[in-house]
């Protein structure tokens, strides 16, 4: 005798006689409704002024911003996944009004309007204060390390940079001297080309030299800013892929990273400020955090908790 499991309802295989609203399937307390109301308050007038009346109708910047912010707050950061969710997930479909832009539109909008997104963050902080979701009574500050888009294998010490620069310079001079030695060697190297093209070996070494010289100049500028008028330690390193990233870590696990800091109001855990730091520890971040809160909220909190409780005003 088989167990009497619930059977598939008959209406699952049928079309509804009367049209309905698919968003009625969402619970009334779903967060997409609140997010949508908040997005309606965003001021997008500055970015709207950049659009033209000519050509094909563009997606409204408020809609694109709404999709991006809603996705980011729900852990969806890929533009392709955002487009997919807007076609499959009811909450995302509600935010997108059942018409989602192509993933490339979402991606390009985010990359081309970084300042506007920063301004949107300020607007959300002020909305939270007006709605009494935050009081600036007590703010907590903490940071986390985010791996940079590079690695220790794409870096070089200052001593190695100087040695490599000298070696490559000598190699390039030798190649140029050899290339100019005779017309026969030149013809053999260039074949049917005009002769103005660089030999492949020389082209590679010149590109390598340019990369090293840029990294060396960036390291020297960084150390001059951090330790003015002091000789540079040969052990100091810099990454070729990201000149601004720093070696960070703990417990013996070190890599190139950034120190991301956020300040959260204690009432409803509303984020009031954020900034990115090159410092490996958080000792110097309180002042920057207070500056970010003041810029976004217009005033300072009464107290802030970092590694210890600090009265602010």
Our count of helices gives: 11
The fraction of residues assigned to DSSP E strands is 15-25%
> What's the alpha carbon Rg, rounded to whole Å?
28 Å
Structural shape:
extended
The tally of structural domains comes to 3
Q: Please state the structural category.
A: alpha+beta
Number of beta strands: 8
Unreliable parts:
none
What number is the mean pLDDT? 80
Domain Transposase InsH N-terminal: 22-111
InterPro entries: Transposase_InsH_N (IPR008490)
Organism: Candidatus Venteria ishoeyi
Protein name: Transposase InsH N-terminal domain-containing protein
Structure description:
The protein has 313 residues and is α+β, with helices and mostly antiparallel strands. The protein folds into three domains: 89 residues, no CATH class; 78 residues, no CATH class; 88 residues, no CATH class. The protein is 44% helix and 15% strand. The chain is built from eleven helices and eight strands. Strands 1, 4, 5, 6, 7 and 8 form a six-stranded mixed sheet that branches. Helix 4 crosses helix 6. The chain is extended, with a radius of gyration of 28 Å. The model has no long low-confidence stretch (mean pLDDT 80).
């Amino acid at each position: 005798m088989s167990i009497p499991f619930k059977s598939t309802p008959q209406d699952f295989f049928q079309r509804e006689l009367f049209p309905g609203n698919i968003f009625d399937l969402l619970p009334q307390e779903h967060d997409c409704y609140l997010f949508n109301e908040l997005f309606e308050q965003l001021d997008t007038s500055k970015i709207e002024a950049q659009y033209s009346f000519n050509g094909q109708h563009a997606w409204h910047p408020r809609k694109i911003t709404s999709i991006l912010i809603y996705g980011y707050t729900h852990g969806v950061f890929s533009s392709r996944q955002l487009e997919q969710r807007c076609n499959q997930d009811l909450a995302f479909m509600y935010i997108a009004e059942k018409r989602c832009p192509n993933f490339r539109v979402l991606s390009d909008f985010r990359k081309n309007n970084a300042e506007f997104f920063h301004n949107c963050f300020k607007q959300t902080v002020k909305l939270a204060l007006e709605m009494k979701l935050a009081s600036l009574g007590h703010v907590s500050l903490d940071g986390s390390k985010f791996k940079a888009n590079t690695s220790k294998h794409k870096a070089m010490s200052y001593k190695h940079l100087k040695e490599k620069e000298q070696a490559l310079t000598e190699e390039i001079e030798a190649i140029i001297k050899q290339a100019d030695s005779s017309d026969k060697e030149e013809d053999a190297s260039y074949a049917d080309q005009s002769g103005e093209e660089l030999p492949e070996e020389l082209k590679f070494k010149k590109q390598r030299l340019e990369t090293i010289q840029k990294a060396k100049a960036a390291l020297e500028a960084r150390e001059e800013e951090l330790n003015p008028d002091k000789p540079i330690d040969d052990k100091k390193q810099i990454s070729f892929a990201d000149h601004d990233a720093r070696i960070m870590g703990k417990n013996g696990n070190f890599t190139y990273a950034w120190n991301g800091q956020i300040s959260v109001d204690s009432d409803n855990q509303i984020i009031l400020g954020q900034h990115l730091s090159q410092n490996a520890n958080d000792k110097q971040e309180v002042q920057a955090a207070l500056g970010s809160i003041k810029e976004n909220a217009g005033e300072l909190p009464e107290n802030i908790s970092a590694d210890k409780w600090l009265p602010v005003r």
